[in-house]
Design a protein that fits this description.
The protein is mainly α. Helices cover 72% and strands 0% of the residues. The longest helix has 16 residues, at 6-21. The model has no long low-confidence stretch (mean pLDDT 88).
């Protein structure tokens, strides 16, 4: 199995933070797979709120 580097973790965190800032309209124009995954991720992060 490949090891994940610290820089890859930082890059992933930055991308996830950017995704969280996108409006539904911005997510809606993504290609289908990306749109579905973006919404799936948002659902996971929102389920921890409250």
């Amino acid at each position: 199995m490949d090891e994940v580097t610290y820089s890859e973790i930082l890059e992933a965190e930055e991308l996830l933070e950017e995704l969280e800032s996108w409006s539904e309209e911005e997510v809606g124009v993504l290609p289908k797979l990306y749109r579905e995954k973006a919404r799936e991720f948002r659902g996971l992060t929102n389920s921890g709120d409250g």
